[in-house]
Amino acid sequence: MEGDGADASAPFVKWKSDFSRAFQYYLDKSTPHSTGRWLGTVGVAAIYFLRVYFVQGFYIITYGLGIYLLNLLIGFLSPLADPELEVTDGPALPTRGSDEFKPFVRRLPEFKFWYSITKAFCVAFVMTFFSVFDVPVFWPILLCYWIVLLFLTMKRQIMHMIKYKYVPFNIGKQKYGTKKGPGSSGLSKD
Q1: Where would I find the beta strands (DSSP E) of the chain?
Q2: Domain limits of the chain?
Q3: Which of 21, 78, 112, 182 is the most exposed place for a label (fewest CB within 10 A)?
Q4: How much is the pTM?
């Protein structure tokens, strides 16, 4: 009779495996479409905020979500090898103008940043359906505290960027495209 328990769970294991494979397939297909992914995340966030607004509650969940998003943002803006914390033999940020250029490698890549934010909004949305998470709190205090936390954290991050002379964005950098014709380099400055 030991086989009966394993036989009963076999369809569930197969369904879970199929679902996981299909989910990963669509996640992989969405990788090059960053604008569409971020628009979908904005839609999910709007649905979450509408839910919180109409229910008039779940401010603790929103505060926790805000702190988690701030943590993700710091990871997204930070270099993989922080020159303040570790000395590496591999690629590091240039600290002087005469240093060799090394590309900025994020601690949290854009895709994982997007995926974590979207997942966080979905989990927070599901949590709004359980009244145990609706702790009564004076929300303006939480909002003020979160704004102060955002200001102090971003100030520290910007000072780190200035000290080690790096910009975590691709604004103004060269983009490589297809050649336009003979004699063109294929580079475009935006």
Answers
A1: 174-176, 187-189
A2: 58-167
A3: 182
A4: 0.76
